[in-house]
Amino acid sequence: MSSLVDLEEALAHLTRQVEEMSDVIARQDREIDRLTARVQMLMNREAEREADSSGTIPLADQKPPHW
Question: What is the C-alpha to C-alpha distance for residues 59 and 64, in angstroms, rounded to an integer?
């Protein structure tokens, strides 16, 4: 009978762990979605900024003055 109790305890422990992991994964998924949206917003903002520079070479692509 003791082994049945041991198995039930182990099952309860594993069930709790799975539920906790599921909560962590759900939080991470929400965070990934939030960060993905933020990166997209920043990429759009940068694309608009580059488009507004009207034909000038972006500062990052310009040669340093000593060249």
Answer: 9
Provide the domain limits for residue 36: 21-46
- Distance separating alpha carbons of residues 7 and 11, to the nearest angstrom: 6
Please give the pLDDT value at position 52: 82
40 domain-assigned: yes
Residue 13 CA to residue 19 CA, distance in Å, equals 10
pTM of the model: 0.64
pLDDT per residue over 1-29, tens digit each? 689 999 999 999 999 999 999 999 999 99
Q: Is residue 66 in a domain?
A: no
Phi first, then psi, for residue 62 (nearest 5°) are -80, 145
